[in-house]
């Protein structure tokens, strides 16, 4: 299973979607399995050339759980807060 992170309104210089993590699992036909894919703050960071550092890009994101890059099986939305 693959987990993709996609900003809802990406900036022009950002990818529209990127792989944030993955896990492997084997299931028999009709069997349900659970996978755990840790998602850290790095999934929402972008390189800021002016600061020469990784910074958190706040805003709404979509998380896509997929069997492959073209096959979303679950999508949810979340909001990453900015720094106070």
Question: Would you give an account of this structure?
Answer:
It is a single chain. By secondary structure, the protein is an all-beta fold. The chain has one domain (2-80): Immunoglobulins (Immunoglobulin-like, Sandwich). Helix content is 0%, strand content 43%. The protein has strands at residues 2-7, 18-22, 45-48, 53-56, 59-66, 72-80. The strands form two sheets. It has a four-stranded antiparallel sheet, with no helix packed on it. A two-stranded antiparallel ribbon has the order 3-4. β3 and β4 form a beta hairpin. The radius of gyration is 15 Å and the shape is elongated. The relative contact order is 0.29.
Primary descriptors:
0% helix; Immunoglobulin-like; mainly beta; four-stranded antiparallel beta sheet; 84 residues; two-stranded antiparallel sheet; elongated
Secondary structure topology:
Elements: E1 2-7, E2 18-22, E3 45-48, E4 53-56, E5 59-66, E6 72-80
Antiparallel strand pairs: 1-2, 1-5, 3-4, 5-6
Give a quick rundown of the structure.
With 84 residues, this protein is mainly beta. It has strands spanning 2-7, 18-22, 45-48, 53-56, 59-66, 72-80.
**CATH domain topology:** Immunoglobulin-like
**Which CATH class applies here?**
Mainly Beta
- Placed side by side, the strands forming the largest sheet appear as 2-1-5-6
Helicity range of the residues?
A: under 10%
Rough shape?
Answer: elongated
Number of domains: 1
